């Protein structure tokens, strides 16, 4: 059975920061909500509570970075990408400072409604020069993303998961910068998923493969830069087309990045983009919202059926019966 991990970022941050005195954490009145309370209690001299003043927090973090520290800002994604966007752009991205922006509640992972649902954050961060973007899809990604972010020279935006997080990927295979995880290989249809959509995509692709469909599936964790040769090679092999699946608007996120890559490289197969279709969501449970806005496993089955031009005899019950287990990446040498 697939393991679930309670608050993996909270415990990992404490362990990870123990040998890194230059790492500081800043919070904007959401310390416990963003799992920074353990760091605050363990390293109080390295923690700054900035109150509900996100614009000021960005400038403060920029100043710390100029003095040789590595500030890790912890707040909800919307309070990084919307309210203080000018400060992120001018104080952090423009001077290329090593500030790490840890954004919680990405997309529709919150019932808080439009004010708290970051459905446009990838698009906003992608347009900033010097910014790098990472997204976590499971507990292993959460536990290894700090190493990746710390090794990047310049600002990093991380879409972080909180609370109870499933472990889709083996702990011995950490997140790697600009390298997608090859979950399955296939020559008919390619699925590229990111974040919480990967769990839904795994459920659907497993069911589709049992029906004889040759589906490849890659989990994408680096959204900028977007020039991973693994992704490019997989797209080039997809005979019937490509489907992207993301917890974000289809405008400006993974789907847009893939469309740009395919157009620039002249890869003329059909592309379908699963995500929020130029709409705001509303407040409800994650499961309900993913079904309501077509971000779940059944939505992927419908997209594959559209791509191949034939119905697929799969029901909600079939997908619910799929048993998910922690996965290891497919050995890429099998492609050769």
From TrEMBL:
<dbReference type="InterPro" id="IPR029061">
    <property type="entry name" value="THDP-binding"/>
</dbReference>
<dbReference type="InterPro" id="IPR033248">
    <property type="entry name" value="Transketolase_C"/>
</dbReference>
<protein>
    <submittedName>
        <fullName>Transketolase</fullName>
    </submittedName>
</protein>
<dbReference type="Pfam" id="PF02780">
    <property type="entry name" value="Transketolase_C"/>
</dbReference>
<keyword id="KW-0786">Thiamine pyrophosphate</keyword>
<dbReference type="InterPro" id="IPR051157">
    <property type="entry name" value="PDH/Transketolase"/>
</dbReference>
<dbReference type="Pfam" id="PF02779">
    <property type="entry name" value="Transket_pyr"/>
</dbReference>
<feature type="domain" description="Transketolase-like pyrimidine-binding">
    <location>
        <begin position="3"/>
        <end position="167"/>
    </location>
</feature>
<dbReference type="InterPro" id="IPR005475">
    <property type="entry name" value="Transketolase-like_Pyr-bd"/>
</dbReference>
<comment type="similarity">
    <text>Belongs to the transketolase family.</text>
</comment>
<dbReference type="InterPro" id="IPR009014">
    <property type="entry name" value="Transketo_C/PFOR_II"/>
</dbReference>
């Amino acid at each position: 059975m697939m393991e679930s991990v309670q608050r993996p970022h909270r415990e990992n941050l404490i362990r990870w920061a123990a040998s890194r005195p230059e790492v500081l954490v800043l919070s904007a009145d959401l310390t416990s909500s963003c799992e920074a309370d353990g760091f605050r209690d363990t390293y109080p001299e390295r923690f700054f509570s900035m109150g509900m003043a996100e614009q000021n927090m960005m400038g403060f973090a920029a100043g710390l970075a100029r003095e040789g520290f590595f500030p890790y800002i912890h707040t909800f994604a919307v309070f990084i990408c919307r309210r203080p966007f000018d400060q992120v752009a001018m104080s952090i991205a423009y001077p290329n400072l090593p500030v790490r922006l840890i954004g919680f509640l990405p997309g529709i992972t919150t019932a808080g409604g439009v004010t708290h649902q970051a459905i446009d954050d990838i698009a906003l961060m992608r347009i900033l020069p010097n910014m790098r973007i990472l997204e976590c899809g499971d507990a292993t990604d959460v536990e290894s993303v700090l190493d990746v972010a710390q090794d990047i020279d310049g600002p990093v935006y991380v879409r972080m998961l909180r609370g109870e997080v499933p472990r889709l990927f083996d702990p011995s295979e950490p997140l790697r910068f600009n390298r997608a995880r090859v979950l399955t290989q296939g020559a008919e249809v390619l699925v590229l998923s990111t974040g919480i959509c990967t769990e839904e995509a795994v459920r659907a692709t497993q069911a589709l493969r049992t029906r004889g469909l040759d589906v490849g599936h890659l989990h994408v964790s680096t959204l900028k830069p977007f020039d991973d040769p693994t992704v490019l090679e997989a797209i080039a092999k997809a005979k019937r087309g490509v489907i992207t699946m993301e917890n974000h608007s289809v405008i400006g996120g993974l789907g847009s990045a893939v469309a740009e890559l395919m157009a620039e490289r002249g890869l003329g197969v059909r592309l379908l983009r699963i995500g929020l279709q130029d709409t705001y969501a509303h407040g409800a449970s994650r499961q309900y919202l993913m079904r309501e806005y077509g971000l779940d496993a059944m939505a992927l089955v419908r997209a594959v059926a559209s791509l191949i031009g034939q119905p697929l005899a799969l029901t909600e019950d079939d997908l619910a019966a799929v048993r998910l287990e922690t996965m290891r990446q497919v050995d890429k040498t099998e492609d050769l």
